[in-house]
């Protein structure tokens, strides 16, 4: 049995009493949130850049998929030095993406479809074109305007050396010198100066920003670089002595790091929680916090944030023991504070998981990208099978699943983008030694043909590869066994098991994962590399399989003979009797 054998109905919402027709419970605990990377989702005006009107026109796809909410990456005024994460005004819309009226229309359309809306907040830094930073550059050292940022004198007799050895995540020093001789800090690109979260102006301005978007009607915030806000700024600044990782999501090394995951950061989120709790219905906050597994749950204490992204699941290799460890650790850590984990397979910062699972274990992904994805050659069939199985595994776990746009289409990484097309600041900041993240940000294909496969009436800001239309929504809709129909079916079936958050491992073969979610959903995933026998408990019914199984199971009943679970495949069983 495959996804094609279960009909897909229109998007429905749960019965109950809230404004979305949902029952009065914490909607976000077991929701499915669809991430929209704004520049690459849909373009309404034909300039090649995604915009809010384009998103509004395509929200029906997300609703039909079966998601509960959308998360929008930044759409604020920005020079786009880092894909919109260099924000010049936190309370407006970039003209390339539309207007505030366009955003209001998007909210209204989402609400009409039963979708909640989460927006990105970027509090660690702003754009060099933010009015505060322009004021800081025009002001003298020691001025109040500079105190909103991290300006310091350099080391050495003439101050020609950076104030500390802190390194940028995009390569090179995390410091840039200005004409009067001082240096300012930027964990990311030089165009993204870090804000000083000890300054009362910064705290007050972001509280105004939260209320601005909440008053417009957003349902929550995804907090960018949530673990980076507070720094140890007591002079002299401490060196990290080479302890920084080049990975965007890797946990910082060592304890008491001078600018990662400091305890003082949690004071900010306690204040923010009071703000979101003052609004109804429930508004949520989710942290992007690349910290250790032991530290991650601290961000979801009852008086802080509601969720934190689970990058350990995203980085997990295709190995049953590794997945089991990540799942156990994630569930236990969240349970310590009464929350549930999130589950993420891909996002706008990493190589797409279909491609990651198509490569040999341990592949150096930056080197692979630099080789245009040719060395080693990905096993596309293997990657597809594993991506489908990973989807069923992930969607069966208790907690919230965040889907990255295009994963429901089985999109692979575009590794061979030409050098002249690359936009990620990592490319230039590393002296063109790291390609960065553009390969997972190529605009979506909606139709088989057209100048940008339905992305917009013109071209696209990143080139779409040949054959991109075969992955399109149009090409996959109603097609038996397609990625899209698998996801549509899985999200619809998943709704029947929301509410019971219990979890238990079941007996399994070596290299297999088997668990029960709630009272009735059983998921079995074969990661062993060989076929395994599949037995259905008495009264159990096969709901969904990531790959074709025996025809004896085509009607969902118990088989008449031996049935096997293929390698790199997953099934859902309903054991409610």
Question: What does the model show?
Answer:
This protein has 577 residues and is an alpha/beta fold. Helices cover 24% and strands 12% of the residues. It has 14 helices and 18 strands. The protein has helices spanning 52-65, 100-112, 131-138, 144-147, 200-216, 265-277, 311-314, 320-335, 353-356, 365-370, 380-396, 425-429, 473-476, 483-494; strands at 32-36, 69-72, 116-121, 151-152, 175-177, 183-185, 220-223, 284-287, 307-308, 342-344, 400-404, 503-505, 512-517, 521-526, 532-533, 541-545, 564-565, 569-574. The strands form 4 sheets. An 8-stranded parallel beta sheet has the order 9-8-7-3-2-1-11-10. It has a 5-stranded antiparallel beta sheet with strand order 12-13-14-18-16, with helices on one face. Strands 4-6-5 form a 3-stranded antiparallel beta sheet, with no helix packed on it. α11 (380-396) packs parallel to α14 (483-494). Mean pLDDT is 92; it is low at 1-23, 245-249 and 551-559.
Describe the structure using short key phrases.
8-stranded parallel β-sheet; 577 residues; 5-stranded antiparallel β-sheet; 14 helices; 12% strand; alpha/beta
TL;DR of this structure?
This protein has helices at 52-65, 100-112, 131-138, 144-147, 200-216, 265-277, 311-314, 320-335, 353-356, 365-370, 380-396, 425-429, 473-476, 483-494; strands spanning 32-36, 69-72, 116-121, 151-152, 175-177, 183-185, 220-223, 284-287, 307-308, 342-344, 400-404, 503-505, 512-517, 521-526, 532-533, 541-545, 564-565, 569-574. Helix content is 24%, strand content 12%. Mean pLDDT is 92; it is low at 1-23, 245-249 and 551-559.
């Amino acid at each position: 049995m495959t996804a094609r054998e279960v009909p897909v109905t229109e998007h429905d919402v749960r019965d109950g009493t809230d404004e979305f027709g949902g029952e009065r419970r914490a909607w976000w605990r077991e929701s499915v949130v669809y991430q929209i990377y704004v520049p690459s989702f849909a373009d309404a005006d034909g300039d090649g850049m995604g915009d809010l009107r384009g998103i509004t026109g395509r929200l029906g796809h997300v609703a039909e998929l079966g998601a509960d909410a959308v998360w929008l990456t930044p759409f604020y005024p920005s020079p786009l030095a880092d894909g919109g994460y260099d924000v010049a005004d936190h309370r407006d819309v970039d003209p390339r993406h539309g207007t505030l009226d366009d955003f209001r229309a998007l909210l209204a359309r989402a609400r009409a479809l039963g979708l909640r809306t989460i927006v990105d907040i970027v509090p660690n830094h702003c754009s060099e074109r933010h009015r505060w930073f322009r004021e800081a550059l025009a002001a003298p050292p020691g001025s109040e305007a500079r105190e909103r940022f991290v300006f310091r004198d350099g080391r050495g007799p003439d101050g020609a050396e950076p104030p500390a050895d802190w390194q940028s995540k995009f390569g090179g020093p995390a410091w840039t010198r200005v004409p009067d001789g001082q240096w300012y800090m930027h964990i990311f690109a030089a165009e993204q100066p870090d804000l000083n979260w000890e300054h009362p102006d910064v705290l007050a301005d972001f509280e105004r920003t939260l209320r601005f978007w909440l008053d417009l009607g957003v349902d929550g915030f995804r907090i960018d670089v949530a673990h980076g806000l507070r720094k140890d700024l007591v002079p002299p600044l401490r060196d990290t002595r080479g302890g920084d990782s080049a990975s965007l999501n890797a946990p910082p090394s060592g304890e008491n790091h001078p600018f990662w995951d400091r305890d003082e950061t949690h004071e900010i989120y306690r204040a923010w929680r009071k703000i979101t709790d003052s609004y109804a219905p429930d508004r949520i906050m989710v942290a992007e916090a690349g910290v250790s597994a032991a530290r991650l749950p601290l961000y979801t204490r009852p008086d802080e944030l509601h969720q934190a992204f689970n990058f350990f699941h995203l980085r997990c290799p295709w190995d049953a023991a590794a997945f089991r460890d990540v799942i156990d650790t994630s569930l236990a850590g969240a349970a310590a504070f009464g929350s549930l984990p999130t589950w993420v397979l891909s996002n706008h910062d990493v190589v797409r998981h279909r491609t990651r699972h198509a490569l040999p274990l341990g592949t150096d992904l930056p080197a692979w990208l630099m080789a245009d994805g040719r060395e080693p050659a990905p096993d596309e069939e293997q990657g597809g099978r594993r991506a489908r199985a990973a989807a069923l595994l992930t969607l069966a776990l208790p907690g919230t699943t965040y889907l990255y746009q295009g994963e429901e289409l089985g999109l692979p990484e575009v590794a061979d983008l030409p050098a002249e097309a690359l936009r990620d600041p990592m490319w230039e900041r590393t002296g063109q030694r790291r390609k960065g993240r553009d390969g997972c940000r190529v605009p979506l294909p909606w139709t088989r043909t057209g100048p940008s496969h339905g992305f917009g009436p013109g071209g696209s800001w990143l080139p779409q590869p040949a054959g991109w239309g075969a992955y399109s929504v149009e090409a996959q809709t109603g097609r038996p066994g397609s990625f899209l129909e698998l996801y549509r079916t899985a999200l619809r079936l998943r709704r029947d098991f929301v509410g019971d958050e219990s979890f238990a491992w079941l007996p399994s073969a070596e290299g297999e994962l088997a668990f029960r979610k709630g009272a009735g959903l059983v998921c079995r995933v074969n990661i062993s590399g060989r076929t395994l026998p599949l037995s259905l408990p008495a009264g159990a019914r096969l709901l969904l399989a990531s790959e074709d199984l025996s025809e004896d199971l085509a009607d969902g009943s118990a088989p008449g003979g031996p049935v096997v679970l293929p390698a790199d495949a997953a099934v859902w069983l309903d054991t409610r009797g």
